[in-house]
């Protein structure tokens, strides 16, 4: 009997190298203040549109087709970073993220993805909030220092969104690695 392989997958917006470098520089600065957090490596920074989870590899070609089809119906756009935020709240943060000034284009992309992926068995997202995860906070020690430091960092960068990508996520000894499996170019 043959078994299908599974892999962790997600659909996201890739960030330009300049944005990754700028965000990486910021997180390196913040690391110096002994904030207990798991910092996302600059190469792994992205904006997730849909986390798919454990995905049967027999679905990958259909996912790639759907992403390509969706991309051909969408227009490329510009996005602006606009400060920082915390999930679930600044009082009990677990995630530090870079915020998006106008979330509407990302929300629309995520809604389109939900519509086309639901027939493939993927559950629609209930509360999509576009963001770029910078760190997973492990302790509230030095949290006031982190919040104070963030107030002095101006984050108002802009970037082009011209593709939607299907990623795989693989855990290795040195951390997680992401690989682009499919890239659908926006018009």
Give the key terms:
alpha+beta, single chain, Cyclic Phosphodiesterase, Chain: A, four-stranded antiparallel β-sheet, 39% strand, five-stranded antiparallel β-sheet, globular, 187 residues
**Parts with pLDDT < 50 across at least 5 consecutive residues:** none
The dominant shape is globular
In the CATH hierarchy, the architecture is Alpha-Beta Complex
Q: Give the helix/strand class.
A: alpha+beta
How are strands sequenced across the largest beta sheet?
2-6-5-4-7
Strands, total number: 9
| Total domains | 1
Kindly report the CATH topology: Cyclic Phosphodiesterase, Chain: A
Task: Kindly provide the radius of gyration, computed on alpha-carbon positions and rounded to a whole number of angstroms.
Answer: 17 Å
* Count of separate DSSP helical elements: 4
What is the helix content? 25-40%
Q: Which CATH class applies here?
A: Alpha Beta
Amount of beta strand: 35-45%
Separation, N- and C-terminal Cα atoms: 43 Å
Order of helices and strands: EHEEHEEHEHEEE
Oligomer: single chain
Instruction: Please outline the major beta sheet.
Output: 5 strands, antiparallel
């Amino acid at each position: 009997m043959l078994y299908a392989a599974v892999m962790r997958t997600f659909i996201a917006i890739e960030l330009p190298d300049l944005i990754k470098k700028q965000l990486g520089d910021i997180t390196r600065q913040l690391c110096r203040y002994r904030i207990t957090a798991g910092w996302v490596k600059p190469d792994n920074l992205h904006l997730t549109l849909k986390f798919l989870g454990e995905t049967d590899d027999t679905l990958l070609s259909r996912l790639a087709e759907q992403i390509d089809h969706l991309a051909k119906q969408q227009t490329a756009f510009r996005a602006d970073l606009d400060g920082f935020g915390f999930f679930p709240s600044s009082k009990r943060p677990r995630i530090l993220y870079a915020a998006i000034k106008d979330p509407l284009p990302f929300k629309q992309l995520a809604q389109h993805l939900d519509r086309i992926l639901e027939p493939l068995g993927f559950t629609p997202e209930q509360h999509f909030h576009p963001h770029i995860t910078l760190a997973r906070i492990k302790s509230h020690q030095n949290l006031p220092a982190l919040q104070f430091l963030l107030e002095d960092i101006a984050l108002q960068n802009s970037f082009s969104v011209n593709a939607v990508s299907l990623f795989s996520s693989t855990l290795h000894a040195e951390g997680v690695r992401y690989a682009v499996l499919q890239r659908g170019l926006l018009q």
